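Our example pasted here:


***
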Amino acid sequence: MAGKVISFINMKGGVAKTTLTKEIGILLSSDKYNKKVLLVDLDPQANLTQSIFEIYDVIDTSKVSTVKDMHDKVENLPSINNLYNESKVTPPDKDQLIVELTSTLSIIPGSLDSVFYGKNSNGDTEQSLRNTIQAYNLTGDGGFDFILIDCPPTYSSYTISAALASDFYIIPVKPDAYSALGIDLLSEVIDKIKGTFVDTFFIKPIHNLGIIFTKYDKKASREAAIKSDIENSDHFSKFHKFSSVFPKQDGLATQRLNYVISNGNNATLKNAIDEITVELLQEIEKYDESQKSNH
C-alpha cells in the first residue's frame, strides 16, 4: 500500500500542532508500529526541527559556543531551503533534503535561518514538495509509510505546497473562544486551494481526517462547553471529531526540546498520544475502505 502524506494544520498557532506531528511520528516509527516515517518541517519557527535535532543529537551543541559556530553547523545540513530554492528546476538530491535519524525515522528539516520564508513564491514553489515526493517515489515501495507535515499557521505558498502534497489533513484545535474562527478560516483556505488547483486535486484529492482537541483542560467548564459545541454543531458536522484528546501539559519536563512523550513517564500524555495514533490509523483505514467500495 502506498504511503500516506498527512498535514497537521490550523490557521491559529499555539494548538500543539508541532507536538502532535513529532509525537505521532516518533511513535509510528518505534518498535510498536515499526513504520517508516518522514517528518517535514514547513513552519518558519522550525520548532519541530529544533526539537528533533535535540532528541537525536543531530548537532553537537556542546561544541557550539558562538553564533558563528551554530551558523557553520547549520549551513551545510540538509534543509527544506534546498527544496524551495528558486534557481533549481529539478528536485534537489535526497541527501540535500533528508536527515536520516534512525532506520525508521527521517526529517526534512526546516530552514533554521528562515531566509527562504521571505522569498517570492510562484507556482513552481507550490508544487515543489509534491514533485519531490513523486520524483523520488518517497511513498512508493521501499519508501515511507507516513510523511507528516508540520504546516505554518498562516496562509502562504508553503501551506499550499503542503496541501498539494497531502492525502489527508488534520486540524488540531485548542477549545477556546476563537477555535471556531480558526476552523472556519482553515476551511476557507483549503477550499481556495482546491479551487485554484482543480486538476491536481482531481488526480489526488485531499481528505480531512478530523479535528483533534488539544491542550484540553477538562476541569475548565468553558473549554468543555466550547468542545461540546464544536462536536455537536451542524456547522462542523462534516469533520470527524477525534474521541481521543491531547490534554493540557503541566510541568517543566514536557517543555524541554528533547522531551519525547512516549519515552517519558507522564502516563496521561502517553495514553493520549497512543489513543490519538490508534484513532488516526483507524480513520485512514476507514477512508481507504470507503474508496474501495466506491470503485
Remarks:
- The CA atoms of residues 51 and 256 lie 8 Å apart.
- The chain has one domain: 4-294.
